[in-house]
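re: the backbone from monday

yeah here it is again, tokenized this time
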């Protein structure tokens, strides 16, 4: 499959890139996408939530009243969860939410989303460009030229480019990643995927079976 390369003015050039159909034109596997996105979101969780149960409360463990004859329920100490300042019953404890996904499933998921984006005409290939210094205004102008200024977009570079990355940090709904760092969730969230001309080869090399 071929796709026309655009320049930074948003106009078609006389160049085309050939996309590997085993990566960009497969039948999407929705279950693989679901498994990968679920794992990515789970792995983002810190798992540092914590609360103190009665054994972790600092306070006297003296029995506060006699067992019988008071007309009230028996109570062992002020750390009882039923008292103000007492421990919490079955409260959250720190835990690890990490989920493991096989590499083949991850690859199928990324291929599936890329294929869906191609089918929806949501992939744009642009000529490689660079900035001498970080300049958000120039990157914003390129977005407007490509007519994607009001949509969440993901720009994929062959390798991380510091000046382009720094230029994008103040743009809402615009992310920059290298070809080796793309994941299913970022691809799925983006309304448009913008590929540097040289990043196509890198993506194919990373996802090639």
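seq for it, each position gets an aa:
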């Amino acid at each position: 499959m071929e796709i026309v390369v655009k320049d930074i003015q948003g106009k078609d050039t006389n160049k085309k890139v050939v996309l590997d159909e085993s990566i960009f034109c497969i039948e999407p596997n929705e279950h693989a996408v679901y498994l990968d996105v679920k794992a990515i979101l789970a792995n983002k969780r810190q798992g540092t939530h914590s609360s103190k149960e009665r054994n972790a409360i600092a306070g006297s463990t003296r029995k506060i009243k006699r067992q019988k004859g008071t007309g009230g329920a028996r109570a062992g100490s002020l750390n009882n969860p039923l008292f103000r300042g007492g421990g919490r019953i079955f409260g959250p404890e720190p835990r690890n939410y990490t989920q493991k996904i096989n590499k083949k499933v991850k690859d199928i998921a990324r291929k599936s989303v890329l294929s869906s984006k191609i089918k929806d005409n949501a992939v744009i290939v642009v000529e490689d460009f660079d900035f001498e210094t970080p300049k958000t205004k120039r990157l914003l102008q390129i977005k407007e030229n490509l007519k994607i200024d009001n949509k969440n977009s993901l720009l994929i570079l062959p390798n991380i480019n510091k000046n382009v990355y720094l230029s994008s940090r103040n743009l809402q709904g615009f992310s920059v990643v290298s070809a080796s760092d793309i994941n299913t969730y970022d691809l799925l969230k983006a309304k448009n995927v913008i590929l540097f001309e040289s990043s196509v080869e890198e993506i194919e090399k990373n996802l090639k079976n």
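The beta strands are 2-6, 12-18, 123-126, 153-157, 174-178, 192-196. Residues 152 and 173 are 4 Å apart (CA to CA).
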